[in-house]
Design a protein that fits this description.
single chain, 454 residues, alpha/beta, Arc Repressor Mutant, subunit A, Aspartate Aminotransferase, domain 2, four-stranded antiparallel β-sheet, 16 helices, 15% strand
């Protein structure tokens, strides 16, 4: 038993944490099972919350690991800090390591087809010319396979010559901003909307025009009022509201921008991950020469491989061909060729079905768990992507909620933090959890949720 003194100035959770830590470092070995939270609470006549807080700190330091439906186990203590951390050190550790991380754009690493990827990579290495620079536009086979996929599944009008391979959304946006800076002066960006486009185009000295939203997504009335040369929109799954722009609105916006000689930048955000309806074909398919189409493999394959792509009109292809970037590819050839083979041999299509099914199960389970464990809330967005957006429907102390979340080693995300505007919601990402972890995560969330109402 551990000695806990209610008269001590240190909180009981800190007393318990310090003694558990000392016991682990002095007496435990890798893999030893820790007492359950309920058992420790009953043994010392303290609350489960006190034990959970102590365990959360041990977990944050890497002293113990959590195994779903099994409990806590001693981890590799040799890499742990050997002296008692100060409170400031503890805070830094908690910021880096969370027991439950509701990151809204994460996949489970276990879902990545590692064996297939390694096998294909080993095969393509022998075909790489290690004495030459890669094609600046991207590997031809990869561009051909992406073009086939986009034509069949997203209704995009393109061939390999229309595609430029990039490192992802940030790289694509930076390249577009650079290529067009002498031709366009201002850009309309959704508000609320993704902060990255706003930041990148500001750095290239574009004038930013705020485009408000209505029930159908980017407002045509707002676009006509702001008169942007460029327009960045997320019609397939508006960020952060989740609105899917209907066909009629897409046609209206396309007609207007064409009449003004403008260009639409279509970020096909989360287009492949729809759980309650079929994906709507791309806006680019309605007007090839007036739309730049942006896509990425981060949401359905892996953000770690850092591969994205753009489908661009002819005049942007000509601008790219004259740019410095056309001389050297930004993505290494091994990754490009491995991905090309992954697409060519049918693995990507099968993987996409698998990822969609897995995350549909997680999405539906999360909806059930929220209904079971949370009260006084409404769903702001669901049905696609890797997160569900919720908001409390009764007076709620957000600051207390955030403090409690840190204490419980729960990482939360809020729409206002990176999207601007007045739209506020809590983004509960589910993609990074194993399906059996979701119940435990929502149980932990429900405790701080209930405590945060006024």
């Amino acid at each position: 038993m551990y000695k806990l003194d209610i008269k001590d100035k240190k909180p009981l959770c800190m007393q318990l944490y310090l003694q558990l830590r000392e016991d682990i470092l002095a007496n435990k070995k890798l893999g030893d099972k820790m007492p359950s939270i309920r058992k420790l609470a009953e043994l010392h006549n303290i609350s489960k919350t006190t034990v959970e807080t102590a365990y959360s700190q041990l977990y944050a330091e890497g002293l113990i690991d959590s195994k779903p439906k099994s409990g806590y186990y001693v981890s590799d203590c040799s890499i742990a800090i050997k002296k008692t951390p100060t409170q400031s050190q503890s805070s830094k550790l908690k910021e880096k390591h969370y027991r439950y991380d509701f990151f809204p754009a994460k996949l489970c690493s276990s879902d990545f087809p590692l064996k297939i990827w390694k096998r294909l990579q080993n095969k393509v290495v022998d075909k790489i010319d290690f004495g030459s620079y890669s094609n600046g536009q991207g590997n031809l086979l990869l561009r051909e396979e992406i073009a086939k996929y986009l034509q069949e599944f997203r209704g995009v009008q393109c061939s390999s010559s229309d595609i430029i391979i990039t490192h992802g959304l940030n790289d694509s946006l930076s390249l577009i901003a650079k290529l067009l800076k002498n031709h366009y002066q201002n850009i309309g960006i959704e508000l609320p909307g993704y902060y990255i486009p706003r930041k990148i185009f500001s750095e290239y000295n574009y004038y930013i025009k705020d485009i408000t939203l209505d029930s159908k997504g980017a407002s045509l009335k707002s676009i006509k009022k702001q008169k942007p040369n460029l327009l960045y929109i997320t019609p397939s799954h508006q960020y952060p509201t989740g609105i899917i722009m209907p066909l009629g609105r897409r046609l209206e916006i396309l007609d207007y921008m064409q009449s003004q000689g403008g260009i639409i930048i279509e970020d096909d955000y989360d287009s492949e991950l729809k759980y309650t309806s079929r994906p709507i074909p791309s806006l680019q398919g309605l007007g090839k020469e007036s739309v730049v189409y942006l896509g990425t493999f981060a949401k359905v394959l892996s953000p770690a491989i850092r591969v994205g792509y753009m489908v661009v009109p002819k005049f942007i292809q000509e601008l790219f061909a004259k740019s410095y970037e056309a001389s050297f590819s930004s993505v290494n050839e091994i990754t490009q060729l491995t991905l090309a083979k992954f697409l060519q041999e049918g693995y990507f299509e099968r993987h996409l079905r698998k990822i969609r099914n897995i995350n549909k199960k997680k999405h539906n389970l999360l909806l059930e768990l929220l209904e079971q464990y949370l009260s006084h809330y409404e769903i702001k967005a669901s049905g696609g992507g890797l997160a569900i957006l919720i908001m409390p429907t009764a007076p709620f102390d957000f600051e207390k909620f955030k403090i409690l979340a840190k204490q419980k080693s729960i990482k939360l995300y809020f729409t206002k933090e990176k999207s601007g505007g007045n739209f506020e919601a809590i983004r509960l990402g589910f993609g990074g959890f194993e399906i059996e972890e979701l119940t435990e995560a929502i149980e932990a969330l429900s405790e701080i949720w209930d405590q945060s109402f006024w």
